[in-house]
Amino acid sequence: MRRILIESARRKQRDKRGGDRHRVRLGDRPATERSPEDLLVLDDALEKLAAEDPAAADVVKLRLYGGFSVEEAADALAISRAQAYRHWKYARAWLRCTLEEPPPP
Predict the structure, then answer these.
(1) CA distance 43 to 49
(2) Degrees, nearest 5: CA angle 6-10-14
(3) In the chain, how many H helices and how many E strands?
(4) How large is the greatest C-alpha to C-alpha distance in the chain, in angstroms?
(5) CA 46 to chain CA mean position, Å
(6) For the chain, which end, N or C, has fewer CB atoms within 10 Å of the first or last residue's CB respectively?
(7) Rounded distance, CA 88 to CA 59, Å?
(8) Does the pLDDT of residue 29 top 70, yes or no?
(9) Which pLDDT value is given to residue 40?
């Protein structure tokens, strides 16, 4: 599912598909919907996290792209639930620090 979303986001950024134009939708936008730019930034951050801590990255991928709960991710990865919660907590903090823009000077 992750690869499908990332490739879709890349396709939408190509000039043939509008490139730098931004789509404006009328009505309420669901909170779970992410822009293609956000998906690409998140994918880059996940790749960096996977290089540092592959187990934590696996938990994040299952949570964000697979819709798993932490318990379901633990079962899928054959790790304890406590370990899955530790990975999830670490990954959330790591991603928050990585994705946040530095405060202006």
Answers:
(1) 10
(2) 170
(3) 5, 0
(4) 47
(5) 7
(6) C
(7) 6
(8) no
(9) 84
pTM: 0.65
Are the beta carbons of 38 and 13 closer than 8 angstroms? no
Tokens at 54, concatenated: 């592959």
In this prediction, residue 30 carries a pLDDT of 34
**Residue pLDDT, tens place only, 34-92:** 677 777 888 898 999 999 999 999 999 898 888 889 999 999 999 999 999 999 999 99
Exposed e or buried b per residue across 30-51, where buried means at least 16 C-beta atoms within 10 angstroms of its C-beta: eeeeeebeebbebbebbeebee
Quick check: 5 and 65 in contact, CB under 8 A?
A: yes
Which residue segments constitute the domains of the chain, with CATH numbers given?
2-99 (1.10.10)
Distance, in Å, from the CA atom of 89 to the CA atom of 86, rounded to the nearest integer, reads 5
Q: Which two tokens stand for residue 45?
A: 């951050």
| C-alpha to C-alpha distances, 15 to 8, 19, 27, 54, nearest whole angstrom | 14, 4, 26, 34
